[in-house]
# Entry
Amino acid sequence: MNYFNILSDIVEDSLKALGKAGTLPPGLEHRGVTLEPPRDPKHGDVATNAALVLAGAAGMKPRAIAEPLAVLLRVHPDVASAEVAGPGFINLTMRSGFWHARVAEAIAAGADYGRSALGKRRGAVNVEYVSANPTGPMHVGHARGAVFGDALASLLVFSGHAVTREYYINDAGAQVDVLARSAYLRYREALGEAVGDIPEGLYPGEYLKPVGAALAQEFGTRWAALPEAEWLPTFRDRAIDAMMALIREDLGFMGVRHDVFVSERGLVADGKVEAVLAQLNAAALVYEGTLEPPKGKEPDDWEPREQTLFRATLFGDEVDRPLRKSDGSWTYFASDMAYHADKIRRGFKTLINVWGADHGGYVKRMEAAVKALSAETVSLDVKLCQLVKLMRRGEPVKMSKRAGTFVTLREVVDEVGKDVVRFIMLTRRNDAALDFDFAVVTEESRENPVFYVQYAHARCSSVLRTAGAEGSGRDLTAATLAKADLSRLTHPDELALMKTIAAWPRTVEAAALAHEPHRIAFYLRDLASSFHALWSRGKEEDGLRFIISGDEPLTLARMAMVKGCATALAVGLNIIGVAPVEELR
RNA sequence: GCGCCCGUAGCUCAGUGGAUAGAGUAUUGGCCUCCGAAGCCAAGGGUCGCAGGUUCGAAUCCUGCCGGGCGCGCCA
# Structure
C-alpha cells in the first residue's frame, strides 16, 4: 500500500483531535493538506504543509498550529520525530520499524506489489496507440508510440483500471488505393511481366512482392487484362490484410499487443459516419458554411467554398471543421468523429490517444469532437510522442526511403533487442525528443539504463542464489522472508534502500494518474542505484555485506531486504515490458 | 499571421505550488585477496530563456516578450 496514505491518516487524526480539543476552530476544512517527501533528506521522511494551509482559514499563525500538531504526532508509535521547520512545515521522521513493515509488505505482495484499486471507480479506459497506416512495415518512428501506449496500458491495468488496448486501422483513404495499385504491379510482376522501376506515386517496397506472388498464385491471370475498377477492391483488401499481418508481427517482436482493431472502412460501411452526422444535426452542431483562409499562410489555390462544418468553436477549437470533401466524400475528421462516437458508445469514460507530434494540430478539434459527442462526460487525453532521432556513435543515421536506408522497427529490434528498445523509449517524457544511439544502448555500463537496472536485478538474484545454496540450511522463500525480523537493519544506507522500495506504490499511482509511464523507468534507475550503492558499501565494510556467516538472523534480514528490492525491480520492469533477468549472459 | 509543445549544470535530461533545484555524462581524485569493479565514493560545475503577476511560498500556475520544434480548408 501507498505509505503516504498511512501517514495522511495519522496527520488527519491528529488534526481532528486538535479540533476536538478546541485548539483549532470547529468545522475547519482540511483541504489542501498534503504530505510530500522533502527534497533534502535531512528534513525527514515526509513533510506536511498542514499548518501553512490551515492558518488562513483558522485565523491563526502557522506555527501556532504546527507546534501542538507536532506534539500530537510525536505520540504515534511509528513516528520517531516531528519537527516544526521554516515557516510552519512539520517534518516527520519515521522509526525504522515503519520501513521494515513496508519491505515485508513488498515481499508478501510479490508480483502484486504496488497494485491498487485506483481506477476501480474511474470507469473503463480506452488506450489507442500505434495506428500506423496499413501501407507497409513499421519503422522506428512508430516504436515510441507503440511502447508508450503499451506501457501506459499496463500501468493503468496495474492501477485497477479496466483497459482496452486499441488500434485504429486507417484503411479508407486514397493511400490504400495506392497500396492496391502497388500490389497489382507486383502481381503482374509475379506473372512474369517485366515491370521495370516502380512508377512515382506507388509504394516501391520489396515487402509487396510476396503479396503480388500470393495473388498470382491464387488468381492466375484472371485480373491481368481487366480495368482497375474490377480488381481494385480485391487487391485493396488483400494488401491491407497482408500489411496488417506484417504490422502485427512487427509489434509482436516488441511484445506489443492490442485487444481491438477497428477498421475505418468498416465504420464508413456500417453507416457510422451518417449516424454521427445525424447526432450532430439533432444538436444543431452542423451547418453549411464557408471558412476564412488561414491568416498569414494562404494557400495559392484558395477558393471560398461552402462545406459541411462542425461547430468545433463551441468546444474550444479555433475554427469550425469540415466534415465533407468537395467531391462529397467524408473527410478523415468525419470518420474519426464516428470512431470516437463509437468508443463513447462502447462505454469508455476515459479515452487516451497516443499520436505522433506531427498530429499536434489535430488535438483541439478531436477534444472538441469528444466533448460534443459525449456531452462532456468523457475525457480525452491525447499524448503526443516526439520524434526519435536514430544515432550511431553520436552521428545521426541517415534515413531515406528512396536510397533504401530506411530503418524499420524490425531491424532495430533485431540489432539491440526488445528490452533495450522498450526501456530507452521510456527514458524521456513523451513530449521531449529522444536520441536513440545504437552504440550507447548496446553498451554495458551505467550509461545504458537498461543494462544498469537489469544488472541490479541480476545481482539481487545472485545474492539470493548464493545465500540459499544447497547446504546453507536457509529457507529463502517469499513466505519465510516476509515474516523475517528486520529490526537489525538500521544502517542509513539500508534505510535508504528500504525507503526507495517503499516508495514504489506511490510512484505507480502517480504515474498512472498523470498517464506518464516514463516515471516507472526513472524510478527503476533510482532503485537500482540505491541497491548498487549498498552493495558496494559491503566491499568497504564487512559488516554491511549481505551474507554474514555466523549471524543468521542478520543474514536473513538482509535477504529479506534484497528480496524486497528484487520484487520492486521485477514488478516495475514487467509493467514496462522489460524482462527482469536472473543473470546477465 | 495563428495554434500546440519545448527552453533547467559544458552535453543529454529528471523534477507531484514547498525549504540550500537533482541524476547521468564529461572533468578531477579515490575504491577490486572478499556476495558479479559490467560496480561504488568524493569534488567542482546553475541569473531554472527574459520581464511582470498570483501566493505565506513559483522551475512548476497566469500574462507579455525572446529562441527552437511541429502543425494550419478537399493528407491520413
About this structure: Residues 3-94 of chain A form a domain with the Gyrase A; domain 2 fold (CATH 3.30.1360.70). The first helix of chain A runs from residue 3 to 20. Chain A has four domains: 3-94, 124-173+256-385, 175-249, 446-575. The mean pLDDT of chain A is 89.
